[in-house]
Amino acid sequence: MMLSAIDIAAQIRSGARSAEQVLNECLKRVEARDPTLNCFTARTTDRARAEARAVDAARDRGDVLPPLAGVPYAAKNLFDVAGLTTLAGGHVNAGNAPAAADGYVIERMRAAGAVLIGTLNMDEHAYGFTCENTHYGATRNPHDTARISGGSSGGSASAVGGGLVSLSLGSDTSGSIRVPASLCGIFGLKPTYGRLSRGGSFPFIDSLDHVGPFATTAPDLALTYDVLQGKDPNDPVCAQRDQDPVGLELKLPRGLRVGILRGWFEQWAGESARRAVEMAAKALGASDDCELKGAEAARTAAFVITSAEGGALHHQRLLTRYAEFEPASRDRLVAGTLVPASWVVRAQYIRRQVYAEALELFKRFDLLLAACSPVTAPLIGSDSVRINGQMMPTRASLGLLTQPISCIGLPVCAAPLWPGVDALPMGVQLIGAPWREDICLAAAATLERLGVAGVREASH
Amino acid sequence: MGPRLQGRGTLDNEAGTSGIFSGTSGYYAVMKDATAPYEAYVREALRVQGFSFNEAQIAEIVLQFSRVAMLAASLEAIELPPYFSAAPVFRP
Fold this sequence. Notes:
The complex is a heterodimer.
Chain A: H1 5-14, H2 19-37, E1 40-43, H3 45-61, E2 72-76, H4 104-111, E3 115-120, E4 132-133, E5 137-138, E6 140-141, E7 144-148, H5 154-161, E8 167-172, H6 178-184, E9 187-190, E10 210-215, H7 218-228, E11 258-261, H8 264-267, H9 271-283, E12 288-290, H10 295-321, H11 330-336, H12 341-364, E13 367-371, E14 384-387, E15 390-393, H13 394-397, H14 403-407, E16 412-417, E17 426-432, H15 437-449
Helix pairs in contact in A: 2-3, 5-6, 7-15, 10-11, 10-12
Chain B: H1 26-32, H2 39-49, H3 55-76
């Protein structure tokens, strides 16, 4: 089993292994497994060697090493990495000039001593939940390579779930961290909207875009989240809040009130999803059901806003370079350019209304529970999935349970459970009130300590 | 003229009311006849925006637009408080 990031950093700090040794072992794993999984679209090996050597040199000098010193990681290819063209999963972007500088979160990881080994596959422009990219291939699920990784941050999730790296970065507009975390059986964090800077990342839907980390343990996730925090004037949405580290203790407050989301979240949860929620609820001592009024409306609002903003973002290039766009999403983008403004404004109003409903719910509860995805990982190429007896389109349906939550910007930690329905993982969403990532992460760590949630070694 | 929207459902009406997910016949049956009201709008809007597509492409775009339209329709009848503003919610 792969070491956690915290353990890797501790070994390097103690001198048990050098950062360069750790890097070489990591690169060997990537060489061995990535031809099957197809996580990486670019390797940054020269940069990684330089960063690892810098860590080793700092240790040799007796410097105090930063928290992720020498830990290899990789990032979804929508983040700017100096010297690489930022693909955002798009062949249409491949001719763009290389990024002149690292994006904000890449810079934060570098400052924390982490070693970037490459960039990772995704659905084109983050518009999808399957990571079946026509131009760069499908990223495969590490627990069954005939199945999808989920998306859009599929490369990020599969690379961690497959043991290639212990940490990765992704983005989540409507579920693109939580869905692949669920399908690949790892931890993922979608923070509060505005908590982490999107500066230096290729946008998808400005009203809904979040960035966040993936990890093999809850403490690794918490540490990475703390590293990524900061004020960034280059992202107008980024909260001008002081850093608020959650630390590594990750203890739940006494008397934690946990609500189990029913209604929409139960209606669209398949058997594995329902079992996972039951398991998490039992472990957390939760027995109170609740409903988020307007959950369906929030999902609908997210769909409408996504359509319009996505279309608007790519409008000019769709006029002239339509054929170069992903066939699976280009007609959706074109349709989005035709959406009347009144629909979008209405959808934004609905967001606020449902947000108000959520705040009411948080007067009664500290944490809400729901599944991450309606079903476990579908087969690659499957157009439809069966959810509680209804055949539904795969691409549109995997986000049914995540879209209402990201639409209103709440922080969510995805924790991997193994309900035993089909030997595949299923994530639960641990949903907190705005800016309460600490509770989400503590709940994930609690489930992990209790042996209810956790990463399992990939089968391939 | 754009598509005429008819709202359904309220915030209290939680389960499967948006049309696209309603009933037992499921998504595919609902979508089968859903595109007709929007085709003229899509064709004209594409022309105004300067797009030029073949008939197969237009049919797919009409289908995609119809999906958004059906969902958007469900938001229209939701009652909102007077003088309601979206702005403060997502200002961190």
